[in-house]
Prior knowledge:
Strands 1, 2, 3, 4, 7, 8, 9, 10 and 11 form a nine-stranded mixed beta sheet that branches. Strands 5-6 form a two-stranded antiparallel ribbon. By secondary structure, it is of the alpha+beta class. The model has no long low-confidence stretch (mean pLDDT about 95). The longest helix has 24 residues, at about 285-310. The chain has one domain (about 10-325): L-amino peptidase D-ALA esterase/amidase. Helix content is about 20%, strand content about 25%. α1 packs across α2 (about 125-135) and α3 (about 240-260) packs across α4. β5 (about 95-100) and β6 form a beta hairpin.
Amino acid sequence: MRPGPRNLITDVAGLRVGNAQDETLRSGATVLLADAPFTAGVHVMGGAPGTRETDLLAPDKLVQEVDALVLSGGSAFGLDAASGVADGLRAMGRGFAVGDMRVPIVPGAILFDLLNGGDKLWTHNPYGGLGRAALDAAATDFDIGTTGAGFGATTLDLAGGLGSASAMLDCGVTVGALVAVNALGRTCDDAGRFFAAPWEMGEEFGGRPAGQLDPAWEPYGDATPGRSTTIAIIATDAALTQAEATRLATAAHDGMARAIQPSHTPLDGDLVFAAATGAVPLPDPVWDALRLGHAAAGCLARAIARGVHAARSGFRPAWRKRFGR
């Protein structure tokens, strides 16, 4: 297993990612879409999620594919970013066919960034426009760090951000992760060593030894319910059913637990979408599915560290400012 050529989720062929943000608002949105509708699943482990159309991703529902997935800041207001994406996709002629109408299927998830110092006194919800701008910006190459849905994100003690990573498996399958890191918990210790370091490939987030917290450490801060949330997408070119995509999203949560301490708290809305384009059949449906889940967890851990490593200072100091050389 090795990183893909971009070390981004777009190493999965056919995928594009777009980011848009508003510096005054200190928030933004990120969209992932493919050349054609794709299979998707979701798994929620946080206690305070905010979502749109995730019920459609259950294997027993009518619609089995989606047109895009959206990650956004803005708490409940940010769910409107998916509406902006849906409007744009409809204008492109994309969407689930119902008679002579097209209805784009755009599940989304949000994080809370309303108290990060940005100007939130708007009278018209800006997130629909941010979603449409992110769709218009979608490309195979995109920035990580302080951008898109991670623009105003934070962790307990550092700036959060948008991260991505990829891995190419020996069986010919590619997997990638995209994550907006806005955690109640920490991603590194007091020396700036990332908890995700055992899964680092090369020196993609500094090449330092693994971080370790004192076993007696307890979380602190002024967090109240709903002020956090890490939201992610795991994507692959493997051919998966909706049930298999859901299992992939579940396995990927291991990577969140490796990279963030604590994760999946009652105050976070931690969520992972899974997306499968179906281009590559799994040679061994049992063992390669196991390997895919293992790779997804590693990719997500790496993507979380990369997002924090690349972030700029904002409401909280950046890793690079505090620990970089």
